[in-house]
Design a protein that fits this description.
3 domains; two-stranded antiparallel ribbon; about 400 residues; single chain; mainly alpha
């Protein structure tokens, strides 16, 4: 070995110290990775329970890292010993110590137990009990190989988890409000949720956890399609909620229409009562169409109030059935009011029209020179008695008007 000057020795030691700093920094950053801590069960994280290809690859990575840290310790001890010896070298002389330091740093001076020698660095005739001596540089090369293998696997797992867990978390955030809303709805009004949807709600969490566990245990073989398996179920549940919301909106519209309808019915009924009262006063009714009582409208109003309360308490099933029955009763009542009012108006109008016809025919008789006709006068008098007294017997008045017309035309 050639003589080494102290500056050369110091430069070599500084180079090794820098390398050791890089090694320590890189190992620290690997250790600080959440995925590494999750795989190793360190940093306060529970150790991941792995299966399949991920378990096989991570097992190799852990073995490499275990050897790496052991080799790092051997190298650190070697460099520390070299530094310690350097502190003992006098400013002049000390060639023996310098040579010892150079032997540590450049010669195969680091003895490895067989179990610490990675397989890729063993030859066919390596001893089964003791490894050979290696230089610090060779040892650093072993460490670099182990680090590269382990880092590759850790980063592959890290990438797989990130690619799979991020969309899984997003999917869970999307599904959670749907599950919560349906769960509350099933408890409050189970009839509004079909059994198929209820079963999907019950099974969704279990299926989600199974997929989460599959991704957690074997991310290297898990597929994004796992999440897609749950999408049809979530879509069906989401659509059901959308349908319920649409139904609820439709119910609100129907309730609003019903509230306006009941007000219209009350107004129409009030008008109809006035017409109906006038008809009863002026026309003798033999075939009266009855006018619904105000009590029926009051009952419809109270019924609608109860349906509004049911709507506010989200009892959609009761509102749907109740509104259908209410609407039928409302339509029937409105029809009866309108029919009775129309009947009464026709009776009153007929009374007016018959008066007009009698006046017109009397004028015609005058034009024909029959103003003094006794027969026509008798019929006229009798017709007036019916038409200008209350109540008017319309059928009798109609018969007299026809008789007057026939008598007038026959004598012509």
């Amino acid at each position: 070995m050639t003589t080494t000057s102290l500056p050369e020795l110091d430069a070599l030691l500084n180079d090794w110290q820098q390398k050791m700093g890089y090694v320590g920094q890189n190992l620290f950053e690997l250790y600080e990775l959440p995925t590494y801590q999750r795989l190793m069960g360190e940093g306060g994280m529970p150790k991941a329970v792995l299966t399949g290809e991920t378990q096989k690859h991570v097992k190799l990575a852990i073995a490499d890292l275990t050897q790496l840290f052991q080799l790092f310790e051997l190298l650190r001890e070697t460099i520390d010993r070299a530094k310690s010896l350097r502190s003992q070298v006098p400013k002049r002389g000390g060639d023996g110590t310098v040579m010892e330091i150079m032997t540590l740093l450049t010669e195969p001076s680091i003895l490895l137990p067989q179990q610490l020698v990675p397989l890729q660095f063993r030859d066919l005739i390596s001893s089964s009990t003791q490894g050979g001596s290696v230089t610090a540089s060779a040892l650093l090369g072993m460490m670099a190989t182990l680090f590269s293998h382990a880092k590759t696997i850790v980063l592959e797992v890290d990438e797989a988890w990130n690619q799979l867990e991020t969309p899984l978390i997003e999917f869970q955030q999307q599904a959670l409000p749907v599950i919560q809303e349906l769960t509350a709805l099933i408890q409050r009004a189970p009839a509004t949720v079909p059994m198929a949807i209820q079963q999907q709600v019950e099974g969704f969490q279990a299926e989600f956890m199974a997929i989460h566990q599959a991704i957690d245990a074997d991310p290297l073989t898990a597929k994004n399609s796992l999440i897609q398996q749950l999408k049809p179920s979530l879509d069906a549940m989401t659509q059901h909620l959308a349908d319920l919301a649409a139904q609820r909106q439709d119910m609100k519209r129907r309730l609003d229409d019903a509230l306006r309808g009941i007000e219209e019915l009350r107004s129409v009924h009030q008008t109809g009562l006035a017409v109906f009262a006038e008809w009863q006063d002026k026309v003798l009714n033999s075939t009266m169409t009855p006018m619904p009582s105000i009590e029926i409208i009051t009952e419809l109003t109270q019924w609608l109030h109860r349906l509004s309360i049911a709507y506010e308490t989200n009892n959609s099933s009761a509102v749907h059935v109740g509104l259908t029955r209410w609407q039928a009763q409302f339509d029937q009542t409105m029809s009866q009011v309108q029919t009775a009012t129309s009947h009464a108006k026709r009776g009153l109008q007929s009374r007016i029209e018959l008066r007009g016809q009698l006046t017109a025919m009397k004028a015609k008789a005058g034009a024909m020179g029959r103003s003094e006709d006794l027969t026509l006068g008798a019929i006229e008098a009798q017709a007036k008695q019916y038409l200008y007294t209350r109540p008017t017997d319309l059928p009798a008045a109609e018969r007299l008007i026809r008789e007057y017309e026939q008598t007038l035309n026959c004598r012509n």
